[in-house]
Design goal:
Helix 2 packs antiparallel against helix 3. The chain is α+β, with helices and mostly antiparallel strands and 193 residues long. It folds into two domains: 92 residues, 2-Layer Sandwich (Dna Ligase, domain 1), CATH 3.30.1490.20; 69 residues, ATP-grasp fold, B domain (D-amino Acid Aminotransferase, Chain A, domain 1, 2-Layer Sandwich), CATH 3.30.470.20. A hairpin with a 2-residue loop joins strand 4 and strand 5. It is 29% helix and 22% strand. A four-stranded antiparallel β-sheet has the order 1-6-2-3, with helices on one face. The protein has a three-stranded antiparallel β-sheet with strand order 7-8-9. It has a two-stranded antiparallel sheet with strand order 4-5. Bound molecules: adenosine-5'-diphosphate and magnesium ion (MG). The site of adenosine-5'-diphosphate has 13 residues, from loops.
């Protein structure tokens, strides 16, 4: 799996996982038009985000908050064409700005060495998780996931606890998805806009 953030967010949205609204642009004019749409909808504050397949984009200056369409245009101008760790920015995601109280890290990955899946969870999100793992390893929980069992509610609760996330995270309601349980590649693709 090798996705851009905007593609991953589209997949999440398909499965009912809440994501900020946003659209992708490959030119400054397109970015401006998207920011104009947000402003017209009463959400002038947007974030312009470099779409490259590497982490640490924020630190590199590839993620910038804009206070309105004009600012978004200027930020897109700065970010498009930027080089981040050897990746040229060809696209930016323009999405609504969120009020962030806390940032967590959470992932599932393939653990080839153990022929299993692994979930990594940390309350210390927002910065490079590799760095947190080095400087504060106790803050990064690693839970092995049985490939046949998956991550039902009890395993999810275990992950939340190990990662020190607030209990509310474990109690979060499951969102119903029309295709719950069936991977997207096994279904008829949804119509693309
Ligand atoms: N939609 C958003 N609203 C507000 N702030 C955001 C938004 N998206 C990202 N940010 C801020 O920018 C930072 C970097 O973005 P992130 O998606 O974590 O990229 P990276 O991890 O590659 O730096 C985040 O930690 C957050 O503080
Ligand atoms: Mg981040």
């Amino acid at each position: 799996m090798d996705l851009f953030e905007y593609q991953a967010k589209q997949l999440f949205a398909e499965y009912g996982v809440p994501v900020p609204q946003g659209k992708v642009a490959s030119t400054v004019a397109e970015a401006r038009a998207i920011a104009d749409e947000f402003a017209a909808a009463g959400k002038p504050r947007v974030v312009v985000k470099a779409q490259v397949k590497t982490g640490g984009r924020g630190k590199a200056g590839g993620v910038k908050v804009a206070e309105g369409p004009e600012d978004a245009e200027a930020k897109a101008e700065q970010i498009l064409g930027m080089d981040i760790k050897g990746h040229t920015v060809h696209r930016v995601l323009v999405e609504e700005a969120s009020d962030i109280a806390e940032e967590y890290y959470f992932s599932f990955l393939l653990d080839r060495a153990n022929r299993n899946f692994l979930s990594i969870c940390s309350k210390e999100g927002g910065m490079e998780i590799e760095e947190v793992a080095e400087t504060n390893p106790d803050a990064v929980a690693k839970i092995s996931i049985d490939a046949l069992k998956g991550a039902p509610a009890d395993v999810a609760a275990e992950i939340v606890k190990a990662g020190n996330l607030p209990e509310a995270a474990a109690a979060a309601p499951r969102r119903s998805s029309p295709s719950c349980g069936t991977p997207s590649w096994a279904r008829t693709p949804p119509s693309r806009r």
